[in-house]
Structure formats: C-alpha cells, structure tokens
Amino acid sequence: MKLTVVIPCYNELATIEAIVDAVLLSSYPNKEIIIVDDCSVDGTRELLRDKIESGIARVIYHERNQGKGAALRTGFKAATGDIVIVQDADLEYDPNEYSSIIAPILAGKADVVFGSRFMGGRPHRVLYFWHSLGNGFLTFLSNMFTNLNLTDVETCYKAFRREIIQAIEIEENRFGFEPEITAKVAKRGCRIYEVGISYFGRTYAEGKKIGWRDGMRAILCIIKYNVFR
C-alpha cells in the first residue's frame, strides 16, 4: 500500500532538508512526499524550489500564510496514497517509525492511528512542564466529549486511510486542526488506535511555534466540534 506523507512547512529553513532526507530514507518503501509551504519568508521556499522539489512527488506553495491546518487541508486533497500521515517539518518526530504507526491500518484493524508521545518506552526529550500539563488537560477535555481514551490528542503523527481524511472537511486553519480532526473521526465511528512513539522536542529558541493562544483555541475547538457540529 502506498503511504502519502504530508509535510506542512512554514519558515523551516534550518530543518526542511534534513526532514525530507529522513523521510526519503525511512524504512517504509512505497511512499509519496507532499510538502505544503505556507508562504515561508526565511528562504525555505527558495530551497524547496532549487533543491528539494525535483526529488519528491510534489511541493505546493501557498501565496499567503494561513496556518498548519490550512496547509494540511491542501496536502490531504492532493494525496494519492492508500494511507496518509502527517509529518511536521522540524525534527521532533522520527520517520523511521512510520511502519509501526500504520501497522494497525495495514492489518485492517484501524481507520485512524495516533502516534502517542505519552505511551510506550521510546525516548523523549525532557522539556516544558506547563506544556506537558496543557497537553494532558486538552487530551482529558477532548476525551470527555468524544468518549475516547486517547493519551495524546495534540500529537503530530496522525495516520488515516485516505478515503477517511479526504471525506472530512477541515475548517481550522491553525493548530485547532488537532482537536477538530479528533472530534470528527470520533463522530464518524472510525476505528482509532494509538501507537507509542519517540519525541525529540525543540525549544522556542530552536523554532517551536505553538503558544498559549493556540491552547485557548484548542479548548474552543473541542467544544465547537463536539457540541455544535
């Protein structure tokens, strides 16, 4: 089965080439890579055009910055693989774990798989206490509404059967995508699995973008997409 890797990208000049190389070298053999550049202004677009674009399936360029959710919406529409997985453009997540993440889908047991940073025995970089607390609260709140027992709603690694993700209208343009998509796959009755993954988090000095405003938006999205949609 073909795997589509969708990489939303915004101002990732320092890491985009390394993550593309890592995805290309990852153990899953049959894959297409789609990068959606969300109007980067740090030289990322030029690097994509000059060096990276010719070596992957497709690069799509947004003409104005819209956010991660908007980039994923664009990438999902362009996907042609049987399975679609999200890959951030930084180096926080390891593409060599694709095979274990999508294994429940390949086995015919799952429609959606979340890669959880908080289960299993894989390595994790130790970083921000308040971020960990916030992630736990958002997951708890989301689970209350969806009646799921997920451990990591805010994870990057989410894999979908293509017909599932392409049938869902994604409304959120920024990081609200995470609680939105969780609510929508839960409402559809999708078979959802979790797989433990490693996590090599980065600091704000290293380019981390998510902030407290995104956390507040996530709370609103949990209520919005579970109650009013």
Keywords, separated by commas or semicolons:
229 residues; alpha/beta; seven-stranded mixed beta sheet; 39% helix; Glyco_trans_2-like; Glycosyl transferase; transferase activity; transferase
Task: Give an overview of the whole structure.
This is Glycosyl transferase. It comes from Candidatus Methylomirabilis lanthanidiphila. Keywords: Transferase. GO terms for molecular function: transferase activity. The protein is 39% helix and 16% strand. It has 229 residues and is an alpha/beta fold. It has a single domain, classed as Alpha-Beta Complex (Spore Coat Polysaccharide Biosynthesis Protein SpsA, Chain A), CATH 3.90.550.10. A seven-stranded mixed β-sheet has the order 3-2-1-4-6-5-7, sandwiched between helices. Helix 2 links the parallel strand 2 and strand 3. Helix 5 packs parallel to helix 7, helix 5 packs parallel to helix 8 and helix 7 packs parallel to helix 8. The model has no long low-confidence stretch (mean pLDDT 93).
SSE blueprint and pairings:
Elements: E1 3-9, H1 16-25, E2 31-37, H2 44-52, E3 58-61, H3 68-78, E4 83-86, H4 98-106, E5 112-116, H5 129-146, E6 158-161, H6 162-166, H7 177-187, E7 192-196, H8 212-227
Parallel strand pairs: 1-2, 1-4, 2-3, 5-7
Antiparallel strand pairs: 4-6, 5-6
InterPro entries: Glyco_trans_2-like, Glycosyltransferase_2, Nucleotide-diphossugar_trans
Domain Glycosyltransferase 2-like: 4-167
GO molecular function: transferase activity
